[in-house]
Design a protein that fits this description.
alpha/beta, 5-stranded mixed sheet
């Protein structure tokens, strides 16, 4: 349900509320049924062999999984969607759908760490060569293309260090050379960045984060353009990827409130980011909505909002002082994920994970996820942390 009866598109808040729901087909119940299934019975051998039944086997789809796929497809403006057991699994199936032995892959140097490990281990073992590039390269990525370059894997903003990428410029170069563009769009979600509309062929989300929103489910999604969908679906089927119905249901439930949650994440995060910019302990804040951020112009041009994830570069302080600051936090839990209702903090270890660029900073880097707590309480927690930082 993505358009009015007149044919005009519904707005995103309406799409996430209604997409994938068909109460008239479910005895009037608002939410789709949660179907636990493996075996599907067919009325006859002819029906089974002729693939006449809508469903063939639980792993290949049920009304429950189709509801989430339909909703994500509508929200992404895509041709179709597949589900995976985690965000990383979604990245894996997306990459495998467009790469073969002997192919060359371009990957942003600021990519999510486990994605890099996948490229350097599994893909390398199967004969795919990866070249990492400066995420700020834009159209200059043309110089890195080879005759066998089949895909460009992007992430905007970059994981941990929040570099923005000029996705339309990269897509124009890639498509002119017959390559596909993949994007990890978890930070912005389709609500705040229209990946398919900006030239992306495979839009990937760790739905674990903002779609689920409650830190209790692992799930990933890949939404595809018309050109990329057939190979994606074939690869997904061949790999046997499947998400359990209870996790799909929780993702559907989280999706319905994602827009209101994201708005609150953004309001609080922007207020805290501006407050952090004025702190004497802080060298700079890595958050594209800030005018001071190097990627702000691209963010303002292409994005319609932001989430609660940001980085903070401190002035030079000892490891002991940083640990005193972070370990004593009351409301910011020390945890690797993000996108849930709660605030989180980590101290990333960036040594040795870049090959095309060098991370240079005035002092230690801290990553914060601003949750749904009251922003004044969060700032009080941060203020106390800064006091421990100074006094250690």
């Amino acid at each position: 349900m993505s358009t009015h009866k007149s044919g005009t598109p519904h707005k995103p808040d309406t799409v996430i509320t209604h997409a994938g729901r068909h109460p008239q087909d479910n005895n009037g119940f608002v939410n789709p049924p949660v179907i636990h299934a493996s075996t599907v019975l067919h009325p006859s051998i002819a029906d089974m062999h002729g693939h006449k039944s809508r469903y063939a086997y639980g792993r290949m789809g049920t009304p429950t999984s189709e509801a989430l796929e339909e909703a994500i497809t509508a929200l992404e403006g895509a041709a179709g969607t597949v589900l995976a057991p985690s965000g990383l699994a979604a990245i894996g199936v997306a990459l495998q759908s467009c790469l073969s032995a002997g192919d060359h892959l371009l990957v942003a140097d600021s990519i999510y760490g486990p994605s890099r490990r996948l490229c350097n281990t599994v893909l390398a073992r199967f004969g795919v060569e990866t070249t990492y590039y400066d995420p700020t390269i834009g159209a200059g990525i043309a110089d890195l293309f080879r005759d066998n370059t089949r895909a460009v894997f992007t992430e905007a903003p970059g994981s941990l260090t929040f570099e923005m990428q000029d996705i339309p410029a990269i897509a124009e170069v890639a498509h002119a050379r017959g390559a596909l563009v993949l994007l990890d769009n978890t930070w912005a979600t389709p609500l705040y960045f229209d990946a398919i509309g900006h030239g992306v062929d495979l839009s990937i989300q760790a739905a674990t984060k903002y779609i689920v929103g409650h830190s209790d489910v692992m799930i990933g999604t890949v939404a595809a353009s018309e050109a990329a969908l057939p190979a994606l679906k074939a690869t997904h089927l061949a790999l046997g990827l499947h998400v359990g119905p209870d996790d799909v249901y929780l993702a559907l439930r989280g999706l319905r409130t994602m827009s209101v949650r994201l708005r609150q994440h953004e309001v609080s995060a922007l207020a805290i980011a501006k407050w952090l910019e004025g702190r004497p302990e802080v060298a700079r804040v890595l958050y594209p909505p800030l005018e001071s951020d190097p990627g702000h112009a691209i963010w303002k041009r292409d994005f319609t909002g932001a989430c609660g994830l940001m980085g903070v570069v401190l002035n030079p302080y000892s490891q002991e002082a940083v640990e005193a600051m972070v370990d004593g936090m009351e409301l910011f839990g020390i945890g690797a994920s993000w996108g849930g209702f709660e605030s989180l903090v980590i101290v990333p270890q960036l040594e040795g994970i870049r090959t095309a660029t060098e991370w240079k900073a005035e002092g230690p880097l801290i990553r914060f996820h601003v949750g749904l707590e009251d922003k004044d309480d969060l700032m009080a927690d941060l203020d106390a942390g800064f006091e421990r930082l100074r006094n250690t």
